[in-house]
C-alpha cells in the first residue's frame, strides 16, 4: 500500500475517531456530571467506562469503513478475533491516555473533559499505527 493510500486510510480513521471521541466525551461528561461526584469516580471510573464505549464504537466503525478490505470474512469468529486485538491495543493506549489526562489535570487544573480531549488526540495517532500495522495488518492475497 502506498503513501497516498495510507493518507486516505488515515483520513477515514480520523473521521471514525471523531465519532469515538464524541462518544467518549458525551459518556464521560454524563458520568462525571451526573453519576459520579468523587475524584476517583470523575477521573478514574468515568474515563474507563467512556473509553470502553468509544472503543466499541470505533471498532464497529473501523471494521466497516476503514479496514473492511482487511477483515477476513464477516463472521462472528473473525469479528471477535479482531475485536480482542483491537480492545487489547486500545487498553494499552488507554493507560497512556490516562497518564496524559491525569498529568494535564495536575499541571493545568483544567476540567476532565478538556484534558481528555487533548489526551485522546495524542493517542489517536498511536491507535492508527497499531490498527494499520498490527490489528488490521495487510495480508498478502494468494
The SS-based structural class is mainly alpha
| Average of the residue pLDDT scores | 83
Number of strands: 0
User: Hey, roughly how much beta strand do the residues contain?
Assistant: under 5%
**Overall morphology:** globular
Describe the largest sheet.
Answer: none
Characterize the structure shown:
It is a single chain. This protein is mostly helical. It has one domain (21-135). Helices cover 83% and strands 0% of the residues. The chain contains four helices and no strands. It is globular. It starts with a helix and ends in a 7-residue tail after the last helix. 27% of the residues are buried. The mean pLDDT is 83.
Concise structural overview:
With 142 residues, this protein is an all-alpha fold. It has four helices and no strands.
Sum up the structure in keywords.
4 helices, 142 residues
How do the strands and helices of this protein lay out in sequence?
Layout: H1 3-35, H2 39-66, H3 76-108, H4 112-135
Amino acid at each position: 500500500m502506498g503513501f497516498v493510500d495510507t493518507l486516505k486510510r488515515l483520513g477515514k480513521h480520523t473521521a471514525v475517531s471523531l465519532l469515538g471521541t464524541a462518544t467518549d466525551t458525551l459518556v464521560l461528561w454524563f458520568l462525571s456530571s451526573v453519576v459520579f461526584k468523587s475524584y476517583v469516580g470523575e477521573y478514574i471510573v468515568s474515563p474507563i467506562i467512556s473509553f470502553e464505549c468509544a472503543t466499541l464504537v470505533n471498532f464497529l466503525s473501523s471494521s466497516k469503513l476503514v479496514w473492511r478490505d482487511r477483515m477476513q470474512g464477516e463472521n462472528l469468529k473473525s469479528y471477535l478475533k479482531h475485536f480482542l486485538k483491537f480492545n487489547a491495543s486500545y487498553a494499552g493506549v488507554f493507560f497512556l491516555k490516562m497518564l496524559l489526562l491525569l498529568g494535564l489535570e495536575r499541571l493545568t487544573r483544567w476540567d476532565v473533559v478538556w484534558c481528555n480531549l487533548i489526551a485522546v488526540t495524542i493517542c489517536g495517532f498511536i491507535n492508527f499505527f497499531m490498527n494499520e500495522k498490527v490489528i488490521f495488518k495487510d495480508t498478502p492475497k494468494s
